[in-house]
Amino acid sequence: MKTTDMTTDENGTSSNGKVDYRRKPEWLKIKLPRGFKTSQVIGLLNEKHLHTICSSGMCPNRAECWGNGTATFMIGGNICTRNCRFCNVTHGKPLPIDRKEIDDIVSSIKELNLRHVVITSVDRDDLPDLGAHHWADMIRSLKENCPGITMEVLIPDFQGRLDLVDLVIAEHPDVISHNVETVRRLTPEVRTFATYDTSLKVIGHIAKSGIRSKSGIMLGLGETREEILETMDDLLSVGCEVMTIGQYLQPAKSNYPLQEYVHPSVFAEYGDIGKRKGFRHIESSPMVRSSYHAEKHVK
Fold first, then answer.
1. Which end of the chain is more exposed for a tag (fewer CB within 10 A), N or C?
2. How do residues 124-174 score in pLDDT, each as one tens digit?
């Protein structure tokens, strides 16, 4: 069989013009998690059968966050009812909600002596309340059992049902985040079931509650500069205070195809633009994920 040799440039672009998601540019090379704190987290996750988006989402900042006393726990199990094309989380039919999950997360946070925690979840479209009461129970238990800890919750869209969003708001976490993930044009291609306008509605409802609202997008999916700036304006128009912008890292060949590795200087420019536009806080760099430096967003 005859093969054609291909080379890749520093941006990961092959000589055939396509971006090879397996060949990352130098600025995306990461160190594997290591050290005592990392070993502690991994050991507890295995012992208690807990899930973190740090691991399920293959986050490149696991070592830094765990070392700084921050972790992102995923509730509702580890099987999502949706199959968004950018995501690495397993999809299918989830198991029933396990209330023991809450107690295990609380005890793990105490044992790890975490200062800040982020809670997220898979989508549970299979449940009548879409998992909202489990969310409320989780937040309430953390507040009762881990006094002094700060908390961000990264919630699903709850199908746009604001009565369910209100169950989360009523527990008063420090920050409530919901990601739009990408620009309006690409949303139908990248996300499953979720819509751009539903996400804006949820973020706007959070902002009106007085709790700090936050959202994020990924770059490298094929969006244009104009669309990124339009997304910033859309988020600000509904009261979003904090925004994160990071590089999309294609998990596998079956996921949405990577279009571009965006240079760090471009991320820095978007960060400056976002500050000038009026975001209270913005994180914008290739390695940024929605929970990156989350402890800073509370202040």
1. N
2. 999 999 999 999 999 999 999 998 899 999 999 999 999 999 999 999 999
Per-residue pLDDT, averaged over 31-43, amounts to 55
Q: How many whole angstroms separate alpha carbon 153 and alpha carbon 170?
A: 13
C-alpha dihedral sign at 201, 206, 208, 214: negative
Return the pLDDT at 7. Answer: 36
Whether the per-residue pLDDT at 51 is higher than 60: the answer is no
CA nearest neighbour of 181 among 217, 142, 134: 217
Strands 51-52 and 70-75: antiparallel
What type of residue sits at position 175?
A: V
Query: What does the alpha-carbon distance between residue 39 and residue 45 come to, in Å, rounded to a whole number?
Result: 10
Domains in the chain (CATH in brackets) are 31-298 (3.20.20.70)
Q: In the numeric block, which tokens belong to residue 238?
A: 């509904």
Q: Average pLDDT over the chain, rounded to whole?
A: 84
Q: What is the 3-state secondary structure (H, E, C) of the chain?
A: CCCCCCCECCCCEECCCCECCCCCCHHHCCCCCCCHHHHHHHHHHHHHCCEEHHHHCCCCCHHHHHHCCEEEEEECCCCECCCCCCCCCCECCCCCCCCHHHHHHHHHHHHHCCCEEEEEECCCCCCCCCCHHHHHHHHHHHHHHCCCCEEEEECCCHHHCHHHHHHHHCCCCCEEECCCECCCCCHHHHCCCCCHHHHHHHHHHHHHHCCEEEEEEEECCCCCHHHHHHHHHHHHHCCCCEEEEEECCCCCCCCCCCCCCCCHHHHHHHHHHHHHHCCCEEEECCCCCCCCCHHHHHC
